[in-house]
Write a structure and sequence with these properties.
The protein is mainly beta. The protein has two domains: 5-53, RNA polymerase II/Efflux pump adaptor protein, barrel-sandwich hybrid domain (OB fold (Dihydrolipoamide Acetyltransferase, E2P), Beta Barrel), CATH 2.40.50; 66-151, Nucleic acid-binding proteins (OB fold (Dihydrolipoamide Acetyltransferase, E2P)), CATH 2.40.50. 4% of the residues lie in helices and 45% in strands. It contains one helix and 17 strands.
Length: 179
Protein backbone atom coordinates (compact mmCIF):
# COMPACT_ATOMS: atom_id res chain seq x y z
CA UNK A 1 0.00 0.00 0.00
CA UNK A 2 1.44 3.42 -0.94
CA UNK A 3 2.16 5.88 1.86
CA UNK A 4 -0.76 8.14 2.89
CA UNK A 5 -1.07 11.45 1.07
CA UNK A 6 -2.50 14.67 2.59
CA UNK A 7 -5.68 15.78 0.77
CA UNK A 8 -8.24 18.59 1.12
CA UNK A 9 -12.01 18.86 0.59
CA UNK A 10 -12.94 18.77 -3.09
CA UNK A 11 -9.63 17.24 -4.18
CA UNK A 12 -9.86 14.51 -6.86
CA UNK A 13 -8.36 11.26 -5.62
CA UNK A 14 -8.99 8.76 -8.44
CA UNK A 15 -11.78 7.55 -10.74
CA UNK A 16 -14.50 5.14 -9.63
CA UNK A 17 -13.39 2.56 -12.25
CA UNK A 18 -10.16 2.11 -10.26
CA UNK A 19 -11.32 2.50 -6.65
CA UNK A 20 -14.74 2.65 -4.98
CA UNK A 21 -15.68 5.59 -2.79
CA UNK A 22 -15.03 4.90 0.91
CA UNK A 23 -15.23 6.89 4.14
CA UNK A 24 -15.12 10.70 3.74
CA UNK A 25 -15.19 10.55 -0.06
CA UNK A 26 -17.87 10.87 -2.74
CA UNK A 27 -18.25 10.32 -6.47
CA UNK A 28 -18.92 13.44 -8.57
CA UNK A 29 -21.02 13.50 -11.75
CA UNK A 30 -17.91 12.85 -13.93
CA UNK A 31 -17.08 9.62 -12.06
CA UNK A 32 -14.20 11.04 -10.01
CA UNK A 33 -13.75 9.95 -6.40
CA UNK A 34 -13.35 13.17 -4.43
CA UNK A 35 -12.32 13.91 -0.84
CA UNK A 36 -15.02 15.41 1.40
CA UNK A 37 -12.59 16.46 4.15
CA UNK A 38 -8.96 17.18 4.91
CA UNK A 39 -6.87 14.22 5.97
CA UNK A 40 -4.83 11.35 4.63
CA UNK A 41 -5.95 9.46 1.52
CA UNK A 42 -5.69 5.72 2.07
CA UNK A 43 -6.00 3.34 -0.89
CA UNK A 44 -7.15 -0.17 0.14
CA UNK A 45 -5.77 -2.46 -2.57
CA UNK A 46 -7.66 -5.56 -1.35
CA UNK A 47 -11.12 -3.93 -1.23
CA UNK A 48 -10.27 -1.52 -4.10
CA UNK A 49 -11.60 1.42 -2.03
CA UNK A 50 -10.19 4.83 -1.20
CA UNK A 51 -10.81 6.41 2.21
CA UNK A 52 -9.84 9.71 3.77
CA UNK A 53 -8.74 9.44 7.38
CA UNK A 54 -8.78 12.62 9.47
CA UNK A 55 -5.29 13.38 10.68
CA UNK A 56 -4.40 15.20 13.87
CA UNK A 57 -2.18 17.51 11.83
CA UNK A 58 -4.98 18.62 9.51
CA UNK A 59 -8.65 18.42 10.32
CA UNK A 60 -10.62 20.45 7.82
CA UNK A 61 -14.19 21.37 7.21
CA UNK A 62 -16.63 18.52 6.64
CA UNK A 63 -20.41 18.07 6.65
CA UNK A 64 -21.84 19.09 10.02
CA UNK A 65 -19.08 21.59 10.82
CA UNK A 66 -20.16 24.97 12.15
CA UNK A 67 -18.50 27.90 10.38
CA UNK A 68 -18.29 31.63 11.01
CA UNK A 69 -17.88 33.68 7.88
CA UNK A 70 -18.06 37.21 6.57
CA UNK A 71 -20.40 37.99 3.68
CA UNK A 72 -18.35 38.86 0.59
CA UNK A 73 -21.10 38.76 -2.08
CA UNK A 74 -24.89 39.02 -1.96
CA UNK A 75 -27.30 38.17 -4.78
CA UNK A 76 -31.05 37.52 -4.66
CA UNK A 77 -30.61 33.74 -4.50
CA UNK A 78 -27.12 33.27 -3.05
CA UNK A 79 -24.68 34.65 -0.47
CA UNK A 80 -20.94 33.94 -0.56
CA UNK A 81 -19.13 33.75 2.80
CA UNK A 82 -15.39 34.03 3.39
CA UNK A 83 -14.89 31.48 6.17
CA UNK A 84 -12.80 32.69 9.09
CA UNK A 85 -13.45 29.97 11.67
CA UNK A 86 -14.75 26.40 11.71
CA UNK A 87 -15.42 23.76 14.35
CA UNK A 88 -17.03 20.35 14.70
CA UNK A 89 -18.02 18.77 18.00
CA UNK A 90 -16.34 21.65 19.82
CA UNK A 91 -12.97 21.04 18.14
CA UNK A 92 -11.53 23.86 15.97
CA UNK A 93 -10.89 22.90 12.35
CA UNK A 94 -8.11 23.96 10.01
CA UNK A 95 -9.22 26.34 7.27
CA UNK A 96 -7.31 26.88 4.03
CA UNK A 97 -8.65 30.02 2.29
CA UNK A 98 -12.21 28.71 2.14
CA UNK A 99 -15.44 30.29 1.02
CA UNK A 100 -18.96 28.93 1.31
CA UNK A 101 -22.24 29.27 -0.56
CA UNK A 102 -25.57 29.95 1.20
CA UNK A 103 -28.50 29.36 -1.13
CA UNK A 104 -31.87 31.02 -0.64
CA UNK A 105 -33.57 27.64 -0.02
CA UNK A 106 -31.32 26.94 2.99
CA UNK A 107 -31.32 30.44 4.49
CA UNK A 108 -34.45 30.16 6.62
CA UNK A 109 -37.42 27.95 7.42
CA UNK A 110 -39.61 30.88 6.40
CA UNK A 111 -40.10 32.06 2.83
CA UNK A 112 -37.27 34.36 1.69
CA UNK A 113 -37.90 36.37 -1.47
CA UNK A 114 -34.38 37.77 -1.75
CA UNK A 115 -31.25 37.33 0.35
CA UNK A 116 -30.47 41.00 -0.32
CA UNK A 117 -33.24 41.81 2.19
CA UNK A 118 -31.45 39.84 4.94
CA UNK A 119 -27.72 40.16 4.31
CA UNK A 120 -25.22 42.71 3.10
CA UNK A 121 -21.49 42.66 2.48
CA UNK A 122 -19.59 42.72 5.76
CA UNK A 123 -22.18 40.87 7.88
CA UNK A 124 -20.89 37.99 10.00
CA UNK A 125 -22.84 34.74 9.70
CA UNK A 126 -22.82 31.49 11.67
CA UNK A 127 -23.75 28.53 9.45
CA UNK A 128 -23.66 24.74 9.29
CA UNK A 129 -21.92 22.88 6.47
CA UNK A 130 -24.64 20.94 4.65
CA UNK A 131 -22.68 19.69 1.66
CA UNK A 132 -19.31 19.57 -0.04
CA UNK A 133 -18.77 19.51 -3.77
CA UNK A 134 -15.54 19.64 -5.75
CA UNK A 135 -16.16 23.35 -6.30
CA UNK A 136 -17.85 24.67 -3.16
CA UNK A 137 -18.78 24.32 0.48
CA UNK A 138 -22.54 24.58 0.86
CA UNK A 139 -23.93 25.92 4.14
CA UNK A 140 -27.32 26.44 5.73
CA UNK A 141 -28.68 28.86 8.34
CA UNK A 142 -32.16 27.38 8.73
CA UNK A 143 -31.57 25.86 12.18
CA UNK A 144 -31.78 27.44 15.61
CA UNK A 145 -28.63 29.34 16.62
CA UNK A 146 -27.52 29.96 13.03
CA UNK A 147 -27.73 33.09 10.87
CA UNK A 148 -26.43 36.64 11.07
CA UNK A 149 -24.49 37.19 14.30
CA UNK A 150 -23.13 40.67 13.65
CA UNK A 151 -24.30 43.14 11.04
CA UNK A 152 -22.09 45.42 9.01
CA UNK A 153 -23.61 48.46 10.76
CA UNK A 154 -22.63 47.06 14.17
CA UNK A 155 -19.08 46.49 12.95
CA UNK A 156 -18.83 50.06 11.63
CA UNK A 157 -20.28 51.54 14.85
CA UNK A 158 -17.74 49.65 16.95
CA UNK A 159 -14.74 50.37 14.74
CA UNK A 160 -12.31 52.74 16.38
CA UNK A 161 -8.93 53.65 14.97
CA UNK A 162 -6.67 55.05 17.70
CA UNK A 163 -8.56 57.98 19.19
CA UNK A 164 -10.59 58.56 16.03
CA UNK A 165 -14.03 57.11 15.54
CA UNK A 166 -15.32 56.40 12.05
CA UNK A 167 -18.38 58.35 10.87
CA UNK A 168 -21.61 56.47 11.64
CA UNK A 169 -24.98 56.86 9.95
CA UNK A 170 -27.69 56.21 12.54
CA UNK A 171 -30.48 56.99 10.10
CA UNK A 172 -30.24 60.74 10.70
CA UNK A 173 -29.55 63.17 7.88
CA UNK A 174 -26.28 64.34 9.43
CA UNK A 175 -23.48 61.95 10.19
CA UNK A 176 -21.97 61.76 13.65
CA UNK A 177 -18.28 62.60 13.59
CA UNK A 178 -15.90 62.33 16.48
CA UNK A 179 -12.48 63.34 15.21
Amino acid sequence: MPSPKLVFPGQRLTVEEEYASGHHTFVDDQGNVVSSMSGEALFDEDAREVHVSPSIKSQGIDVGSIVLGRVSLVKDAVVILAIGYAEKDGEPRTIHDASAVLGVARASRDFVRSLKEHYQIGDFVRAKVSGLTPYSIEVSTNEKGLGKVLSRQDVVKRTVSGSERLPVDDGAKSKEKEW
